[in-house]
What we know:
The structure holds two protein chains of two kinds.
Chain A: H1 4-9, E1 25-34, H2 47-61, E2 70-74, H3 80-88, H4 94-98, E3 104-108, E4 113-117, E5 123-130, H5 134-149, E6 156-157, E7 161-162, E8 174-181, H6 183-187, H7 191-198, E9 203-207, E10 219-224, H8 232-259, H9 262-278, H10 284-299, H11 308-317, H12 320-327, H13 333-347, H14 349-359
Antiparallel strand pairs in A: 1-5, 1-8, 2-3, 3-4, 4-5, 6-7, 8-10, 9-10
Helix pairs in contact in A: 3-12, 7-8, 9-10, 10-11, 12-13
Chain B: E1 12-17, E2 24-29, H1 31-38, H2 42-59, H3 64-72, H4 82-88, H5 96-99, H6 101-112, H7 128-147, H8 151-165
Antiparallel strand pairs in B: 1-2
Amino acid sequence: MIKLEELAGQCGEWLRGSGPDSDIVVSSRIRLARNLADFTFMRKCTGLDRASIERTLRERLGRIKQWNTVSFLDVNSLDEVDRQFLVERQLISRELADADGSRGVLVDANEQFSVMINEEDHLRIQVMNSGLDLMGAWERINRIDDMIEKHVTYAFHERLGYLTACPTNVGTGMRVSVMLHMPALVLTRHLERVFRSLQRISLAVRGLYGEGSQAMGDFYQISNQITLGKSEEELIAQVSEVAQTLIEYERKARNFLVENGLKELHDRVSRAYGLLCTAQTISSEETMALLSSVRMGVNLGLIQDVEIPTVNKLFIHTQPAHLQKISGTALSTADRNIERASYLQRHLGRQAHDESAENN
Amino acid sequence: MKCDRCDKQATFHITERVGEQEHWEERHLCENCARDYLSKPSEADIQSSLASALAQHLKIGQTAEELAKLDQQTCPMCGISFLEFRSHGRLGCPHDYLCFEPQLMPLIENIHGEKVHTGKRPRRIAKGLDQQTQLIRLRKEMQQAVQKEDYERASQLRDEIRELEGDA
């Protein structure tokens, strides 16, 4: 059984900052929407039905032998901070966190996959890989889907494919997403090229992360809009292709910044780093913006004393619920800002180095 | 050009394609509004494009009277009315895809630009959707039998469910 306190201390496989193009692509994610054939969709489920779906799935999926490191978390009985914690970690959706009634999530110990129960569909399977690795994610999720299918009967239609509560997901039930870090495109105000490159195919671009709904840290997520009429491989190829284009744009923008003002760029990322190492109180928003600069600085070799996995981790660990789980107590916004600054100091700069030197 | 949402100069010109057909939505936004727009949760957007596609489709060739009649139509399996689906964008059960098929198919085509699934298929398919939806009915009956403490009937129904699921 996973303890959330233990999770808080470690970090998911997908944050390790490796894999193809991981300087720009943080993670590749695939989710599949599936429903059981013998229950109504969530909208027409009574409380009893919800409980019965959860019980059935827990019991049947508990039979999967390969899943000995998979734990079930009863989301309905978690308090708000714990639910928010799982959202920040991207193990569950905001919808699942905010819903009512029986619901839960199966989480693998390395956080490489999770299976939400009673979200918009009975099952939402998700796999996350580090870097641009959609085919790897597809192979894994396809295997997981096969394993689950041995124990349940999915709602499936000969012509329409997997049946989902919302017709926008029918067919493959698949959403393929790539999360990209594009600070140079934002800085050079070329982000609109991103949209132009998306005109030819139906893809969605979204901002990501943050306390509010605001796009922060220059992270953007692209994903397929349609789910019917194309095979899983075709949908993946489409998203991959656009991701490649965006990577190319971002690299060009970074080169431009290096060639036309290396001093300014170096100054900018160094100041960001300095602030993060020395601030005594800092908001989530400011942290995101500064970490984004630092992340680019590390990738361009302008900052040497911190590594990408650490920066990736800090984006998640400095969010509100994480700070509260790590410090073990509920914190007001003002207290969080102080705790955040102290957490950053412990993990960046001189203090962090001294500590690791002592440990060695 | 001014931003669609405020008085600032629009610097972002976003063209989003809805479905595969030549259906475009243009937005002209300043940097701040563009960021705000981009950070909106995607489901809300999908929801709004679904609602607009649905509204568009229903406007064509239907009188108010016909529309009202359509809204009253309900699924015998889960009891959802077409109106309820139309207002929330979520279906009630797999059988809705059959009983609302004439209304849903043009909508699905509008969203996806296609109407036939070509991807993965489950290895174990319950024998046709008709029989799958029988499962929902059987399960309901089984629940009722259990409530009435008619365990003999309940176990009979359980066997029927197992058979349909191909669990043997």
